[in-house]
């Protein structure tokens, strides 16, 4: 099969709007719209359609209609479609990057570019993966074979921190395994997702990828619907619990990628100077609005004082500003709801008399949701800034002396998303990593992801995984065939 995207002449996408939903191959608006803001300026930049219950119904029906035909294609044919989709996205990548910065806030020249390029790479690479049938037994008398069959219609619900990457992380494995999808992005950042849905309509068969927009209600309609067979959700732990409860009515499969409060542990005598840029980016990248950001940095007593000084000096040079400005290192907080939560967290830090080593004052007179890089010097272990996920550019440094005690404190959380351990003695660091209760633990590195590397949370950070063979399998039913020869 020769699938080719007509990427230059056929696809006309206006990035200034209108912003439309993709339902059964048609581009549709809605009677009601909601405002989308630029978080750096506070200005309304677009109106997005508020899907009606009928439109959500239509999107699910379109996905259901399209699914048998899509599943009947060979794996290679679906792969060709996804490769064509990656080509089409690539042809529009500059516009998508600008749109991402405008609606999400992250710097265009760094984080936004990385997010969009990485997302497209993901689609292209997942298109090359295949789940092979597995022969469990093959004797002269008997064969046992395990195959992976599509689930049907998948509902995908995404958050506002990495809307393009987390969206396409769901699209690619869902489609390559023979499912169709209805996607709903966060109401705070719907525009890029609506546009990648629009591009898909020029390349993929009608109904294979449907994108609707709206608030939390639209998400709930998808999770409750009897014709949706799986929910792939990324968002907060609180919403994840609602998604799981709603999915139980029809025993939908669920993959939940939820919140985290990731610890990083610096072991005694770590030569930390070369690590400072990585540690800074891992904690403050995307302005801390990152599920796997370092949210608690435990520094051994032997290096704590000097580390604090050097880390603060490095962070002091970083610029918080409008993501369209090439001098900006960190953009604004994406929305007023999260900004309000940070105001509350900053007030709590102050009220509890925590020592602030950098930042600490939010200037509420600014038009955008700007929050300064803030480093808290050894707050009490039971303070909110250590125990909760702030989801902003504020990081507690915690001094430690006793290894058993720091491991216990790192694990003293309902979250279990990721963690990192850093130190000169690799074996010792690995020993500590083995005892951290988290889905991913990095040693002397951080934030490495890969198409073939499963990623998912332990405890209340999630259920199931994305990526890797295991991530593909989560979009399938396991089907066992047996027969006598
Ligand atoms: P959120 O849970 O508020 O919203 C996520 C999505 O769920 C949105 O599209 C929202 O409209 C929808 N939604 C809300 N209520 C719903 C309901 N009852 N039924 C169905 N859908 C509903 O999360 P957020 O504030 O957008 O994102 C931030 C959170 O996401 C943080 O906790 C962060 O750690 C987490 N996150 C996790 C990962 C991961 O991979 N583990 C990645 C990114 C973000």
Automatic annotation (TrEMBL):
Gene3D superfamilies: Aldehyde Dehydrogenase, Chain A, domain 1, Aldehyde Dehydrogenase, Chain A, domain 2. It holds the Pfam family Aldedh. The active site is at residue 257. Belongs to the aldehyde dehydrogenase family. Residues 31-480 form the Aldehyde dehydrogenase domain. One of its GO terms (molecular function) is oxidoreductase activity, acting on the aldehyde or oxo group of donors, NAD or NADP as acceptor. Signal peptide: none annotated. This is Aldehyde dehydrogenase family protein. It comes from Marivita cryptomonadis. Keywords: Oxidation, Oxidoreductase. InterPro entries: Ald_DH/histidinol_DH, Ald_DH_C, Ald_DH_CS_CYS, Ald_DH_CS_GLU, Ald_DH_N, Aldehyde_DH_dom, LUC3-like.
């Amino acid at each position: 099969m020769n699938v080719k995207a007509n990427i230059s002449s056929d696809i006309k996408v206006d990035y200034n709007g209108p912003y439309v939903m993709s339902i059964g191959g048609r581009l549709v608006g809605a009677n009601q719209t909601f405002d989308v803001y630029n978080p750096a300026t506070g200005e309304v930049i677009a109106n997005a359609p508020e899907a009606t219950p009928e439109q959500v119904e239509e999107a699910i029906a379109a996905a259901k209609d399209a699914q048998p035909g899509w599943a009947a294609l060979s794996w290679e044919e679906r792969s060709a479609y996804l490769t064509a989709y990656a080509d089409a996205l690539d042809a529009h990548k500059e516009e998508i990057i600008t749109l991402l910065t405008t609606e999400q806030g992250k710097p265009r020249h760094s984080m936004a570019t990385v997010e969009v390029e990485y997302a497209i790479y993901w689609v292209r690479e997942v298109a090359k993966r295949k789940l092979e049938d597995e022969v469990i037994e093959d004797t002269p008398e008997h064969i046992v074979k395990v195959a992976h069959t599509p689930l049907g219609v998948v509902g995908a619900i995404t958050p506002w921190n990495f809307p393009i990457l987390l969206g396409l992380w769901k699209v690619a494995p869902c489609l390559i395994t023979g499912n169709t999808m209805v996607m709903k992005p966060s109401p705070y950042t719907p525009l890029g997702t609506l546009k990648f849905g629009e591009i898909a309509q020029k390349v993929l068969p009608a109904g294979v990828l449907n994108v609707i927009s709206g608030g939390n209600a639209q998400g709930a309609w998808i999770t409750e619907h009897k014709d949706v067979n799986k929910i792939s959700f990324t968002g907060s732990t609180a919403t994840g619990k609602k998604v799981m409860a709603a999915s139980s009515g029809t025993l939908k499969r669920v993959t939940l990628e939820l919140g985290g409060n990731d610890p990083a542990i610096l072991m005694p005598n770590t030569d930390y100077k070369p690590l400072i840029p990585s540690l800074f980016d891992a904690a403050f990248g995307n302005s801390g609005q990152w599920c796997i950001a370092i949210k608690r940095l435990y520094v051994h007593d032997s290096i704590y004082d000097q580390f604090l000084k050097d880390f603060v000096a490095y962070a002091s040079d970083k610029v918080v500003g409008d993501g369209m400005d090439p001098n900006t290192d960190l953009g604004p907080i994406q929305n007023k709801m999260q900004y309000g939560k940070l105001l509350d967290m900053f007030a709590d830090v102050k009220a509890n008399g925590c020592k602030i080593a950098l930042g600490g004052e939010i200037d509420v007179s600014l038009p955008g949701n700007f929050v300064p890089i803030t480093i808290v010097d050894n707050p009490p272990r039971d303070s909110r800034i250590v125990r909760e996920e702030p989801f902003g550019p504020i990081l507690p440094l915690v001094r430690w002396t006793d290894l058993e005690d720091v491991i216990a404190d790192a694990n003293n959380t309902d979250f279990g998303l990721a963690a990192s351990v850093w130190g000169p003695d690799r074996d010792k660091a690995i020993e500590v990593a083995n005892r951290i209760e988290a889905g991913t633990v990095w040693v002397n590195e951080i934030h490495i992801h890969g198409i073939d590397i499963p990623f998912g949370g332990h405890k209340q950070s999630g259920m199931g995984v994305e990526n890797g063979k295991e991530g593909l399998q989560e979009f399938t039913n396991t089907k066992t065939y047996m027969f006598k020869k």
